[in-house]
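Please, structure for the following, as tokens.
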Amino acid sequence: MAIPVQNIYYLLCYAWDEFAPKQLEKIATEEFPDAVHLFARLLATGVRSLHQRGFETGYVTLEQVTSSPRGRIMMAETLLLVATQPARVCCTFDEMSVDVLTNQILKAALRRILDTKDLDRNLRAEVRSAWRLFDQVGDIDLTPRVFYKVRLHQNNRLYAFLINVCRFLFDSLQPLDHAGGYRFQDVLREPERLQRIYEKFVRNFYRRCQSVYTVKRDRMDWAGQPLDGADFSLVPQMETDVTLRSPSRCIVVECKYTESIYQQNYFKGKFRSGHLYQLAAYLQNLETNSEGILLYPTAGVAVDQSYMLHGHRVRMTTLDLDRPWPKIAASLMALVESAN
């Protein structure tokens, strides 16, 4: 499924629940050959903006051999110096520095972009210029664990957005067979990753863009009990993708990112039974007036069918991700307005 680059930007921003600040918004409207060029441009421009206002700083622990003690003297290390440098001691102390994890991640992501094949020449120059701004920041290797260690201040939206961009680039730029280079690999083609992004995108869109419903995920236990000493905790909970509630309505939206909404049954396409069973189980455990939507992404093919099943309204429909973003947003809003 081919999704325009600009729409990939919106999908990811809603999934991250973090958008580019105003100084970067216009970049997303420009034309780019792929998502890596778009996010590399956002990163380079964002880093320059951070530099203008001052990079984030924090206390880092340093060690120093000196004749003017400061901080805490490291006795074991100092004793080793006695024979060769009797007038000096080894100290450890905290100092305010820009060499903190957030800046290290930004620098490492820019370095990875510079090592990427097939990058536009002008964009490479922009990235190199941004990378050079981190001359006082150390080098690290990017790993998934590094991103989990990041702690951001709530009032620093630009850093939060750019760290998400770095994670996307880390996942997208895969090492070449030979050392020292990377190539763009479209991670949005991975079904499991796309499913998570699509689900978060829909949930956060409704949470941000409307005020009629509260939006969350519902967790439900099965109506039952253990038999013959069985451990009921082994039975998994049911969990919706998106539940929208108002005083008068409860709408469950299940987001299914799949190439086809149909399964073959005696050479004739039918809706996927597993998806329908799952939605039906949720509806039967929620309010009596609850209604459900199975929402599939598509690019150019539209399906929209509604049924009354076991007293619940169920709709099977598609969201065309190949259209301009305003039309996608309008379709999502119309979906919960018209599900009466």
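The first helix runs from residue 5 to 16. The chain has a mean pLDDT of 87.
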